[in-house]
Amino acid sequence: MSELDLIITNVRVVVPGADEPQRLDIGIKDGKFARIEAGLSPELATEVIDGQGRLAFPGVVDAHQHWGIYNPLPEDAYSESRASAQGGVTTSITYMRTGQYYLNKGGDYADFFPEVLEKTAGRAVIDYAYHLAPMSRKHIAEIPSLIKDHGVTSFKIFMFYGGHGLHGRSDDQRSFLMTPEGERYDYAHFEFVMRGIQAAREQYPELADVISLSLHCETAEIMQAYTKMVEEEGRLSGLPAYHASRPPHSEGLAVTIASYLAHETGLPTINLLHLTSRKAVEAALRMAEAFPHIDFRREVTIGHLVADCDSARGVGGKVNPPLRPREDVEALWEYVLDGKIDWVVSDHACCRDETKFGADRDNVFLAKSGFGGAEYLLAAMVTEGSRRGLSMGRIAALTATNPAQRYGLGATKGAIRVGLDADLALVDPNRTWTVRAEDSESTQEYTPFEGVELTAKVTDTFLRGQRIVTDGVVTTNTLGRYLARPTA
Fold first, then answer.
1. DSSP string, 133-149
2. What would the pLDDT profile of 406-441 be if each residue is shown by its tens digit?
3. If both were cysteines, with which of 146, 245, 461, 465 could 28 make a disulfide (CB 3.0 to 4.6 Å apart)?
4. Whole-angstrom Cα distance, residue 222 to residue 69?
5. 168 lies in a domain?
6. How many CB atoms neighbour CB 182 within 10 A?
7. Residues 367, 356 contacting (CB under 8 angstroms)
8. What is the pTM assigned to this prediction?
9. Domain containing 32: what range?
């Protein structure tokens, strides 16, 4: 019997703690990284793969996806995990809640979440976990059992649902969210969610560092007023109109409120999701200075780093928070380069053409929110990051190591290191190609990135030592497993 199952040779490996890749061989045994060193003898392994001088990145831990939001969950788990694998993603953490969309039902997570797990079991090409949103008082009471029984250690608040729907105005919060009669999804509820999560951290002190709360920071009242103004003025249309209807200071205000509530409730593990603008990040940094005892983490999406509201391919680029003008894109890159951003995600939410667009396809306020993008995450980061001087080590941290550690996956995922799962992506940094929706495994027929030229491409993806993408083609079926956290 060979010492190793597989050696990947002739690669430049992005290893923890190093800015630039190193000429090393990767030895894999029983799905784990077993030896990472130069000059491994081919005779040690059952199989040897020539990496052809490509970069070897840790498999992407895409900590923000939405499987099943617009399509049946089993279908999304299959097709969108395949699209993710194309982009070098080996682990997805996808958001889930009760209410309209997703499973389109309310009720307790004790009944709801096992159904979620059943519908995704055996469907995904990549490994996956779930963040859950406590939408009711009962959900808050269920937080300890979700942690203990299902390994769910991360939770979410959608701040704008207090008075805004998923796609715009909403006058009937309860029917949309399917919450119990007499309950409101508002700032008071957000406070009690925070208190519930902090109580769980105290109940499970050995898990406290990986139990966290993530927040979608937008302010419903600001968005309602500005949406009315934009529509009445009629001066703007398309994505610029949507940007104006959900202005950046709406994000900044929500960040400020969320941060003070975290301070009030003593909850120190706060993740500020998909910050899109200079104002949003400035607010987040001001709150970090005001409350140094809170361990804030700041997230941006690859969509907001690549596209802007003028360059994206039409109304298909509608997303919450919106794509912003180019000056905000450049501001986000400044913060990435300055080390102020902790991780980059896709916010992948497959929304097919027939669902995405309203009767008037050009009316952004009739369109649904969200689009896919996991298949471009790593390639776009290498393309744009290289051009701007971002090191390969920093890209690995942003796309894999940092989210893995925050969300309870660091013992098995997020780095090319002996003992961790052998998840990796080979990237050709000199292959120029053009994004075309038709080339994606996603069932979404369009992409706001259509026509974008990238100068790096993921060629091969490995999950626990098994090659699931070969020269850009998904070659293995459903190997993905549910990850109860923290993994060990």
1. ---SHHHHHHHHHHHHH
2. 999 999 999 999 999 999 999 999 999 999 999 999
3. 465
4. 25
5. yes
6. 7
7. yes
8. 0.97
9. 4-50
